[in-house]
Amino acid sequence: MEFARGSLTLLLLSSVAPPVASQQAGSLTPEAHPPLWSLDCTARGCWWERGSVVLDANWRWLQKDGKNCYKDGDWDPAVCSDPIQCAKNCAAEGADYAATYGISVNRWQDALTLKFVTQGEYGSNVGSRVYFMDSDETYKIFKLKNREFSLDVDVSKLPCGVNGAVYFVEMDKRGHWNGRSNTAGATYGTGYCDAQCPHDVKFIKGAANSKDWDPKTATGRYGACCAEMDIWEANSQSTAYTPHPCTQPGLTKCDGVTCGDADQRYDGICDKDGCDYNSYRLGDRDYYGPGPGFTVDTSKPFSVVTQFDGTDSGDLAEIKRFYVQGGQVVPNSESSILGRNSGNSVTDSLCAKQKTKFGDLDDFTRKGGLAEMGAALDRGMVLVLSLWDDAAVNMLWLDSAYPTDQPKTTPGVLRGPCPGGKQSTPEYLRSTYPDAQVEFSYIKVGTINSTLPYNRRLGGSYV
Ligand SMILES: *[C@@H]1O[C@H](CO)[C@@H](O)[C@H](O)[C@H]1NC(C)=O
């Protein structure tokens, strides 16, 4: 993904009780993580593991003695003038996942649905972001190098401009719980970071991000940077997978140039552009879309398989992709825009070739390329599932023409068939497609080729 993952966009409850961030554990509403089972696989087979998901802390009501710590885009100076005191004062409350946030699991507890617009008791919620847990206090840490990750997706109800995303970020296993200024921890979804170094994260490492807070943009002085591996950014029209390495391990609380903001985009510690593999952008416009005319028919569910090739001890060499639909293994589209035999997977050479062809600055190589991404996969990353719209650039970088000031005929500008313009604005999308939703199911991780027999389970049959 190339642009800020929704500071304003992952917005939230609008009126009475604005969503807020967290550091102490709340006591007014109990927090019950929706259970979500996943499969761990080896060549000998797959085993179910009980997991769960937790809503990010930024969405939650943050209160002290029943009073908002954060309201109408700003902090209450009475309790939040000091970042550490603010964190100690304010408690994140439990979430009513289905009624308030439109987050639910099926009766088998192996499928998660995220709804776009949910009208709740306190106003309307737009989108959500949840993390996968292996206990009620810890995020599951995935180590994906020389492994594969797969899941089933249903994107049939995701229009242009809306993004159902599955990705990994190098968050702390306990969300920087420290027993003092952060007693909420992973239990309440703290500790988010990504390669865009978002400034809207309300608490970073146990301190409120209240310094220089701008209520208009709801962003603070500091950003939360960490490596990010986008497995799946998609709607029914377009899809991309994208490694975003950073030059520092774990979460870096950035300040100034290290954040890589605005015209310092390439001076920060993370590769914000990444090296995206977008089938449409790379030349195959009939590969992915709704209906039987497409190789992957997005009007029906399918499995997405991503393989991180490389040895356990060596560098990450290649990120492969294939799909499984209707009982058939579907190889990834070819990067025909780069010339014949340019491959159908992310490698350092494909990335360099793509940046040259599209006239993009190659920050991916400068930030260490696949080797640096592999280092983050080795240290371990947290699984994020989200649904969002994009107030910054209307998701044009995923499914339409971007940048908008260049002719659509310039190689790399067209990323999908969406018209863009007014029809991709959050305002239009929220009122026109409030019932948009995405379903993620059957999350699997294991050695290379081990999840294949278990992909796209439909009616009990396996591929
Ligand atoms: C995985 O399966 C593919 C296709 O059958 C095969 O080419 C490849 O060698 C396999 N990889 C491993 C590590 O077993």
UniProtKB/TrEMBL annotation:
Question: Which reactions does this protein catalyse?
Answer: Endohydrolysis of (1->4)-beta-D-glucosidic linkages in cellulose, lichenin and cereal beta-D-glucans
GO molecular function (one): cellulase activity
List UniProt keywords, sorted A-Z. Carbohydrate metabolism, Cellulose degradation, Glycoprotein, Glycosidase, Hydrolase, Polysaccharide degradation, Signal
Q: Which EC numbers characterise this protein's activity in its record? A: 3.2.1.4
Pfam families, per database record: Glyco_hydro_7
Q: Where are the transmembrane segments?
A: none
Any signal peptide, and if so, which residues? Answer: 1-22
Q: Which InterPro entries match?
A: ConA-like_dom_sf, Glyco_hydro_7, Glyco_hydro_7_sf
Q: Which PANTHER family match?
A: 1,4-BETA-D-GLUCAN CELLOBIOHYDROLASE B (PTHR33753), ENDO-BETA-1,4-GLUCANASE CELB (PTHR33753:SF1)
Q: What is this protein called in UniProt?
A: cellulase
Organism encoding this protein:
Pyrocystis lunula (Dinoflagellate)
